[in-house]
Design goal:
alpha+beta; 14 strands; 543 residues; Arc Repressor Mutant, subunit A; Rossmann fold; 56% helix; single chain
Length: 543
């Protein structure tokens, strides 16, 4: 198949537009919910308008041997969903024509607009304060600008995690744009002096390597949220992106913020983005933000995420962490029911309480409110994985990775493969993740687990030992003990049990990993005792 359309950008046909980079289909600016496989079929057809795309080509690209479903079933369902989304029919096609037993062809009129700026990277804003202690403020303003621009439905934004990878880079901007498949780059500076903040930003067209726009803005710190919205709207005007009524409403909803509360919130996000080692600092900062401004919904959601993460990492019991997190998320929604971060926080806390269907509803609501919120897709993918819905989980992880290529989603996708008993794919996924982030304790633990599942105990034990150095808490220690037991190294497994017993006198030890060690050693009564304890505590990995 020789494609003639662009590799990325937006393709328009009739009232529809397909954002190839974001993987989104929109009708008159409004996003249409479409399964990932259906969109990828559409993408292949759009890249070859008027030409036959064979069933063999579709299978090779979208349903290779490592996917989770049967090709025939998957293709038929994908075409059906695609036609439903387009209001099309097989009998009288306006867009997708079926060539029986051969394949499909796009027959609509296609308009290519590759030169427009429809995707952006916001490079980390440079801190001009001269104070290294203010770095958190510059990073926070960068994240806020990305979040505000992401409110524009017709614009694709590179996520904060990936953007921060280019902090202080000397790489040419056109090379960065090619790497990330973006049309434009925003770069600038931020300076805070007392109670005032100044942002200077410029927009570069990556296609032509020319400056499109540059401007400076200055406001009181209490008006910083309005300042961020103003900068985002100015960029939208310059690139001639049409704001939908929903977009306009999102920008209109800006309230003044208490400066000390906002400062504490930015510090909280700064530490949250460096988790797990700095979760304690993040919690303190979010608590300070709430104390200074109890009506600050985003701070409640941020603190909820921190507490749920403590449970997820096995640092506190779910009964301790997630009960508090759920209350905080509900408070955030009481203040602002349209906050996607709050719905995600509620879903995350609910998930660790084993209420997966309620969590699913909240994840779906969060994604409906903000389809670009990568963390929502990332956590929803894991929720689906533990429910055994591996194909749907894979799709959500792919969406999260597309939005945030350098996120933790790559590691959690590996656990989806483990749960589906696809150990070779899990190993490959964890190795890829570790190459990107050698300090990922979660990825090292997953790699060790996957190796152990294949009875490759030596590399498994080596990976789990590394995980114990990088992942705080008892979870990787317990996984190491289980690997020792499975490898027939009984004495070492018993030493791990003794280590966990001593550790439990100082801090929380998840009972689930203790139960797995006993089960692997063949001590069934002890295993059931610890499983029952884990269930009563709603221990995190019990899911």
């Amino acid at each position: 198949m020789q494609g003639i359309g662009p590799a990325h950008g937006t393709l328009r046909f009739g009232p529809f537009e397909a954002d190839l980079t974001a993987g989104e289909l929109r009708k008159q600016g409004v996003r249409i919910k479409l399964p990932d496989q259906s969109f990828r079929v559409l993408e292949m057809l759009l890249k070859c308008p008027g030409k036959l795309v064979t069933r063999e080509e579709l299978q090779k690209r979208i349903w290779p041997s490592d996917t989770f479903v049967d090709f025939e079933q998957g293709l038929n369902n994908s075409i059906k969903r695609l036609r439903e989304a387009l209001g099309d029919s097989a009998e009288h096609p306006h867009f997708v024509e079926t060539l029986p037993r051969r394949g499909y062809r796009f027959v609509g009129a296609l308009q290519v607009t590759a030169e427009r700026i429809e995707s952006l990277l916001v490079l980390p804003l440079e801190n001009l304060s001269g104070d290294a202690e203010q770095e958190y403020f510059a990073d926070g303003m960068t994240e806020a600008l990305i979040t505000n621009l992401a409110k524009i439905s017709a614009l694709r934004l590179v996520s904060r995690t990936t953007a921060m990878h280019y902090k202080r880079t000397r790489q040419p901007l056109n090379e960065i744009a090619r790497e990330l498949g973006v049309d434009g780059i925003v770069e600038g500076t931020v300076m805070r002096a007392g109670e005032r903040v100044r942002i200077s930003a410029q927009l570069i067209n990556a296609h032509t390597d020319t400056h499109v726009w540059a401007e400076s803005y200055e406001r009181k710190l209490s008006d910083v949220l309005a300042l961020q919205a103003e900068v985002a709207q100015a960029i939208a005007r310059e690139i001639r992106v049409k704001l939908t009524p929903i977009d306009e409403a999102r920008f209109a909803k800006v309230q003044p913020v208490d400066p000390p509360a906002y400062d504490a919130y930015l510090k909280g996000r700064y530490y949250w983005n460096r988790r797990p080692a700095t979760l304690g600092e993040a919690i303190k900062c979010f608590e300070q933000a709430i104390a200074k401004d109890p009506s600050y919904a985003a701070a409640h959601a941020g603190l909820a995420d921190c507490l749920s993460s403590l449970s997820g990492l096995g640092l506190v019991s779910a009964n301790e962490g997630c009960i508090k997190a759920k209350g905080l998320a509900l408070k955030a929604l009481e203040i602002d029911h349209s906050l996607a971060e709050a719905h995600t926080a509620l879903a995350y806390a609910t998930f660790w309480h084993y209420d997966f269907l309620a969590a699913e509803r909240e994840f779906e609501r969060a994604i409906e409110l903000n389809p670009r919120y990568a963390i929502a897709h990332h956590l929803f993918g894991y929720n689906l994985a533990v429910m055994g819905r591996y194909e749907e989980s894979y799709t959500e992880f792919q969406r999260a990775i597309r939005l945030d290529p350098l996120s933790l989603s790559k590691a959690l996708l590996g656990f989806n493969y483990i749960y589906a008993r696809r150990y070779d794919q899990a190993i490959a996924q964890f190795i890829t993740t570790i190459e990107l982030d050698p300090e990922s304790g979660v990825a090292h633990a997953g790699l060790g687990w996957a190796y152990s599942c294949k009875s490759l105990f030596e590399p498994g034990i080596a990976a789990l030992r590394k995980a114990c150095d990088l992942w705080p808490g008892s979870t990787p220690i317990g996984m190491l003990g289980e690997a020792y037991a499975a490898a027939g190294r009984r004495d070492e497994a018993l030493k791990v049990l003794e280590q966990l017993d001593q550790l439990s006198k100082q801090r929380y030890v998840t009972p689930y990993v203790v139960s797995r060690i006993y089960a692997t050693l063949g001590q069934k009564d002890e295993a059931f005792h610890w499983l029952e304890t884990a269930y009563q505590q709603q221990a995190e990995w019990m899911v």
